[in-house]
Description:
Oligomer: single chain
Bound molecules: nicotinamide-adenine-dinucleotide, zinc ion
Number of domains: 2
CATH topology of the largest domain: Rossmann fold
Low-confidence stretches: none
Shape: globular
CATH architecture of the largest domain: 3-Layer(aba) Sandwich
CATH class of the largest domain: Alpha Beta
Strand content: 15-25%
Largest sheet: 6 strands, parallel
Number of strands: 9
Structural class: alpha/beta
Amino acid sequence: MRITDTTHVLVLTGAGISAESGVPTFRDAGGLWEGHDVTEVASPEGFAADPLLVWRFYSQRRAGMQGIEPNTAHRALVDLERRLGDRFLLATQNVDGLHAAAGSERIIEMHGALMRSRCTRCDRPPFADTTAYRAGVAPMCGQCKARGVDALLRPDIVWFGEMLPEGAIAQIEAFVRRAGRNLAFVAIGTSGLVHPAAGLVEAARRVGGTSYLVNLEAPANVTAFDHVVLGPATREVPALFT
Length: 242
Ligand SMILES: NC(=O)c1ccc[n+]([C@@H]2O[C@H](COP(=O)([O-])OP(=O)(O)OC[C@H]3O[C@@H](n4cnc5c(N)ncnc54)[C@H](O)[C@@H]3O)[C@@H](O)[C@H]2O)c1
Ligand SMILES: [Zn+2]
């Protein structure tokens, strides 16, 4: 990919970029998470029905991040950001925190963060939390407790049926508008066909930009992207930006 003084790069990453670090993708897990239907463990209804089950699931995922490190694909994005500065933006669907761990700064975490919790009741800001809660103990908000209110904590994850964080989409759209025909939209490790990747490909096309997909397998509709690179992210992402 040719990068000039005006090139703006918008990257969208999905679970595939972290796969080689050892974080399973949804599909690796057979479409089930720990034997559960996703709606049981990743929806507000599931949490209301069984908060302990949901916390057990996210506690296992937190514990599973032990010893997991960013890979060369995450690091290539850090290098690219250092070259481009404000002409770079990284939107990620991942919740694993590996982009930040690698050193990326201009990140929009569209689906929240595994290692953060928030209160279901009060508006204290989400806070860093690596705790894998013990089975049978649902974590409660200490600040609400101090006011005599019992309120559950929840993972700071965007569940199915929930809104994306305020401003996330607006920030991405503003970047696309500012970039115009200098935009290179690069989707990595995400099936390019569903929202938001599909929408961003279209947005890039509308402003006259160029789109790239780096993924292990070809999407059903290869023609949606101007350029498709098939292969593992750790090999293809560093190669794309050299
Ligand atoms: N690491 C994480 O934080 C994590 C892990 C699992 C799921 N999730 C989230 O759950 C939702 C659904 O997850 P999903 O797994 O279906 O994600 P997805 O739809 O983003 O699919 C993963 C894609 O990555 C590709 N892929 C797998 N290994 C790859 C590699 N080494 N190099 C390049 N591409 C590779 C697969 O072909 C697949 O198309 C998304 O929001 C996802 O981000 C996040
Ligand atoms: Zn609270």
